[in-house]
Amino acid sequence: EKNLPDSTTQMVCGFCGTGCNLNIHLKEGEGICVSPTTEYPVNLGMACPKGWEALSVLQSPNRAISPLVKKSPNHWEPVDWDTALSLFTRKFKGIQQQHGADSVAFLSTGQMVTEEMAFLGALAKFGMGMKHGDGNTRQCMASAVTAYKQSFGFDSPPFTYQDLEESDVLVFVGANPCIAHPIMWERVMRNPHSPEIITVDPRKTETAMQSSLHLQIYPKSDLPLFYGIARILIEQGAIDEKYIQEHTEGFQEFADYVTAYPLERVIAETGLSQAMIEKFADLIKSGKRVSFWWTMGVNQSYQGVRTAQALINLALMTGNIGRPGTGANSITGQCNAMGSRLFSNTTNLLGGHDFLNAEHRDKVARVLSIPTEQIPDQNSWPYHKIIEGILAGKIKGLWVICTNPAHSWINQGQVRDILDRLDFLVVQDMYHDTETAKFADLILPAAGWGEKEGTFINAERRIGRVKRVKRAPGQALSDFSIFKLIAQYWGCGEMFSNWKSPEDVFQLMKQLSKGQPCDFSGVEDYTAIDEQGGIQWPFPDTETQPPAPQRRLFEDGIYPHENGRARFIFSEPSKMPEPPSDQYPFILLTGRGTASQWHTQTRTRNSDVLRKLYPERIYVEINPQDARAQSIQPNDWIMIESQRGHLKARAFITQSVQPGQLFIPMHYEETNQLTDAVFDPHSSQPSYKCCAVKVSTN
Ligand code: SF4
């Protein structure tokens, strides 16, 4: 009885973008265990292993419990907050005085609550005068964001999770929801319409294995495939001409362009048979409610934006959007990628506004009661330009909040080299042992999910609550409190005098969203979010009805572009930047390997349960044909080498990968020593998914 809970509260999970709701069972106000919420519209009583272990990862000896100052290589000493923040201010101000305000930059995250993202963005850019800051969402969602903005006029994923249960044809591209979004996958399994499930992926993933059609294409041939499918559908008249005419523009140019994709070309570029390609087109043609879903296999590509838009084009031309069970649907990765997309003040000005638009700057200044001149009239450098800026000596100070570039950045070797070149590196994180923290001059201990208040926005645009159900350890503070203190030490505390609590910032965010496609000014307060089971945007204050439990966009066929029309956008596919060669004959694929680990494992490696559910040592998937050719046995340690680095991994011999291809999960520290730093030209998102490598057994 001593260990039984005495009350329960509810909040959304802090790992992935699904946004499941969890019951947190409390004893004397402290969370002691978790169970999934049954009546919440997202997860319907389910959670994946990470959700079940959400509280465990907070109790780790690796938690940062006091500010730490580097005294010598590999030696940090604890200090109090006053010493830490005096040093923070002195160092960063000193750098700015000597090298200009933009010589200090920040890198943030899709993991903090939205209120903290807004605070960080406003503090760094309006208070501290920084010009450059970006988030780790550049690594996962930037291509989808750009695709939506160009095609629809705003970053607007149109779907609601109900669509997974209402489609009769579901197309998953570069997505493995079976393990990456397992609760969404459960909805597919519950779909009562016996749907056709089509997976487009070079690897035979868990999702592909459960699909009715797996199109195991040659890596990065998805764009010509979709152009070829568009050609077939147009030729067969399997398009929705009324929808195209009333709600879109640019279709005729697109139709003319895809005549360059006859079957022979698509067969040659994708490696698929004619029968497979025709079956894919037939299934789209015969479907009444076809939905297209994509994740990192599309976004993390040198042509991610155009590939996402090729899927948007298919949805538009067949009228599969704005109706139940349809849509061109990008699924987010991180718990608050959507909050970051709208409120991190990096690529967008707060609230999905535009730094380059004078009216937008005026509006934001008005809402925040600050002079418009405080708001930069230019966009920030994207992530890779910030890295290059450090390399070029233009950025001398870096503040890294809740992300781990020394593990996750595509050009890992370069990042590790340049972090050492900085005059001052601050890492603000829950854990003191991240790969990035090892380079830090100052570590600021942050509270984690479950130790602070705020909101997340999930993949279907649902705003959900995060609550404080645990005391943060030692001197760790919420990121919100750290930002508030920094504002005071920096001398811009007055600007944030009304930002007393996360809910104060939520009220400001509501005003910032007003009139935007993401308008949620009708959400009264945190209590309303609790009572409604989360609320999807848009929910403007002009709504007279309570928010619907599920809500999709574009049911009226009106898009955020000025003329209300969606655009067909396309261009010639690019060549693979690093194709296999005699010296590097394999293509390396990377991605999520399990439902039990999260990204760089910063948190999940701190759960005994989650660690046991996943191989601790790095492995590489290799096809039996290739293993035989090199006399590789199961579990042999083999060397994988690219032009940039090498690693040793255990051989997992499997038909999951095609001959000539390898797969290594992204969760291991070594993986990004191999990847090639190339970027989508429109979104600046890194192309993690294919580079050339060789295999040896010594
Ligand atoms: Fe949390 Fe995502 Fe797992 Fe749901 S699916 S419990 S949101 S990690």
From TrEMBL:
InterPro entries: Asp_de-COase-like_dom_sf, MoPterin_dinucl-bd_dom, Mopterin_OxRdtase, Mopterin_OxRdtase_4Fe-4S_dom, Prok_molybdopt-oxidoreductase. The keyword Magnesium does not apply. Residues 6-62 form the 4Fe-4S Mo/W bis-MGD-type domain. Keywords: 4Fe-4S, Iron, Iron-sulfur, Metal-binding, Oxidoreductase. It comes from Gimesia algae. Its EC number is 1.7.99.4. Pfam families: Molybdop_Fe4S4, Molybdopterin, Molydop_binding. This is Nitrate reductase. One of its GO terms (cellular component) is membrane. GO terms for molecular function: 4 iron, 4 sulfur cluster binding; metal ion binding; molybdopterin cofactor binding; oxidoreductase activity. GO terms for biological process: cellular respiration. It is an enzyme of class 1 (oxidoreductase). CDD domains: MopB_CT_Fdh-Nap-like, MopB_Nitrate-R-NapA-like.
